[in-house]
Amino acid sequence: MSVETSTSVVAGARSRLGEPCVLLKLGEVVLKGRNRDMFERRLQSNIRAALSGMGVRHDVRQRHGVIAVFLPEGTSVETADAVARRVADVPGLVWVHRAWRVAKDPQAVVDAALALVEDRPEVESKAGFAVRSRRRDKRFPLRSNELDRLVGGAISETYSLPVDLSNPDLTVYIEVDRDEVFVFTDGIPGPGGLPVGMSGRALVLMSGGIDSPVAAYRMMRRGLRVDFLHFSGIPFTTSESIYKAYALVRALDRFQGRSRLWVVPFGKAQQSIKASGQDRLAVIAQRRLMLKTAEEVARRIRAGALVTGDSLGQVSSQTLENITAQDDAVRMPILRPLIGMDKTEIVAEARRIGTLEISELPDEDCCTLLAPRRAETRAKIEDLVRIERRLDAEDLAVQLAASIQEYKIETS
Ligand code: ATP
Ligand code: MG
Question: Which of 204, 207, 377, 400 to mutate to test the pocket of ligand 1 (most atoms within 8 A of CB)?
Fold first, then answer.
């Protein structure tokens, strides 16, 4: 049967290859000096959390400057690949390599390298290759350049491949560590940045649009754990925007795990703003009320900052004057990671992180309830404060914050 054949092929290869594992390269974490231990521990626990739902036994180990995820002997190549893809979403990691872990013996390294190259398309096309070795353990009998030559010689002899050190199509990496040697080829890029949780907690104002999910991603990547707050026009709009916010949070959850989404029923408050008669200021007045409400929620969940998807000049509410008027509404810092990005760049990033498709679904955003014919691009803070006094905005924000509903994120 074909199943048996393929199992025996994998088993045959494995006896030459050692144990499958996933080798993880850290980004800025390595620059953190005395805090480095803390960073590494946080990263390890985030990796464990990311893998916990997969039902694969694994052992996360710190090595010198790298982290290795050991998998039980007999783990299939497909499972090891799935583990690699899963951890490639963990912020703090720059590269993820499916690797083989072999004994600290030059012959074992040669065998693993030969087996790794065997199935590569470059063997067929006779493309140039290179071997790059590193010794983290200097007691290993061969120096890096000796190991390069030994393994390179074996590969070019066995497969008649030309060595090309300046621009190789295929690179075999060899890393000699304290207890083992890792042998691997190219990897998948990770998100980079810092481990989630390292920088504290923030609350993202999450619309159903393209920008705010990208803003959330950017801040998670800088080590913030984020919770999400969505304002829905309910009862004057349908629930579509809530479903979108939910789907977006679910898509972003793979970068941090345990995400939480709260929804504010905002329609009635919007009606009161509209009734105040200040048509041109309505959008900024509403945005300030959103921020005040978010600040109240943030205090309760011990978040230290708010995050929005604002980008300078993108729409009328995002002029310098209007951004100033928004900052004035709260005492908490408002982080705007997209402030200097072009829409095309934001869209490209949304596509890459998998949120664009969801953001592009139609919905009835609560903001459309208020869209005036001409929005003020230079809102004056005194005018806004006057509207807010009439509305009793501070009290209203407290009430709104008390009316939030949590939507539990179910991860697949
Ligand atoms: P987005 O694509 O994120 O919706 P946008 O380009 O549509 O942004 P605005 O509608 O002006 O711009 O919103 C600016 C920011 O205000 C959003 O990025 C988001 O952080 C916040 N925001 C807007 N509407 C909502 C909402 N309904 N719920 C929560 N936050 C919102
Ligand atoms: Mg929007």
Answer: 207
Q: Point out which residues pair with 3 in neighbouring strands.
A: none
Closest ligand 1 atom number to CA of residue 264: 28
Q: Which parts are annotated binding residues for ATP?
A: 205-206, 230-231, 287, 309, 318
The mean pLDDT value for 157-184 works out to 95
Q: Give the domain CATH number at 24.
A: 3.30.2130.30
Helix, coil or strand: residue 90: coil
Same-domain pairing of 373 and 398 = yes
Last residue within a domain, chosen from 143, 159, 189: 189
My answer on whether 156 and 262 are in the same domain is no
99 and 22 in contact (C-beta within 8 Å)? yes
Q: What residue owns the CA closest to ligand 1's atom 31?
A: 207
Query: Per residue in 326-335, pLDDT tens?
Result: 999 999 999 9
Q: Which ligand is nearest to the CA of 212?
A: 1
- Residues 60-87 pLDDT 10s: 999 988 999 999 988 888 999 999 999 9
Q: Which atom of ligand 1 is nearest to the CA of 245?
A: 28
Q: Is residue 194 part of a domain?
A: no
Residues with CB under 5 A from ligand 2 (ion): 207, 209
For residues 384 and 185, give the distance between their C-alpha atoms in angstroms, rounded to a whole number. Answer: 59
Q: Which ligand is nearest to the CA of 308?
A: 1
Q: Taking the mean position of all CA atoms in its chain, how far away is CA 61? A: 22
**CB contact at 8 A, 332 and 306:** yes
Alpha-carbon span 161 to 164, nearest angstrom: 9
Q: Would you list the DSSP string of 313-368?
A: TSSGGGSHHHHHHHHTT-SS-EE-TTTT--HHHHHHHHHHHT-HHHHTS----GGG
What pTM, to 2 d.p., does this model score? Answer: 0.91
Q: Which residues line ligand 1 (CB under 6 A)?
A: 205-207, 209-212, 230-231, 308-310, 314-315, 317, 365-367
